[in-house]
Amino acid sequence: MTTKKKDVVGRKVIKKKGETITLDVMRMIRFIADMPLISKKQEMSKSNQEYGIESILKKFRIKRLEMGHPTRDRNNKKTYSGYYFNKNLEIYNKDFWKDNMTFWLKDAYPFDMQYIFQPNGSQRNPDIYLFLKGCCIPIDVKSSENGSASWNSTYAQSDIIYMIASKKLGETAIILGEEISPCEESVKVLNKYVADYDKLSDRVNDKLIGIQGAFADETRLPWTVYPRKMYCNLTKYVNLKDKNEAMRRVIDKIIAATA
Question: The whole model's pTM is what?
């Protein structure tokens, strides 16, 4: 039997079989799944029904956390306005978010119903760190014409939730990374390809620098190449027969992680 009550900040929560999740987050996931198109943009574009992921988060009362920098007060003492710190006053700075994150563990962080936008920069995944009951849930937003997806620098990661939208079909799929990440054998092939690709790039650049070095000066430096790795999956996620079940599994995982 399902019962309702209120948590410490007054939000309604749903309790089922001993598991608890805020209704706001459950509604948000269903809301996003019904959107014709979502994007990484901050705000909502009404003209083409494109909903920015941040505008959706704010709609469901999830507050944005900003990463700041140390400043000095009038007495020249260093303060940490804009930084995040836990109850032991351990400082969480930008490097911390990049290199030391723990995902899907309740009470790992002193945040609830809050998020960080593009914590690793605009070119690295994920797009969102969503904090719910101290649990950090990574979310990445992707859009394409037909509902397939591509990744820069790395392939799909098993611990990330992916929201994949189709511009042409006007539909969105929400799916666990563990269900779409490459298998172990594929990872071996992909990693070997990347290693060989890097070695080839280095040889090409060495050759270019050798050719142009004699002519280079401060105003005309040698040309080099910087190959950008792209990983693609041709699955049209928005057309999956079990799309609704995939979304249900996302909700179930969040429930289990935050119960």
Answer: 0.76
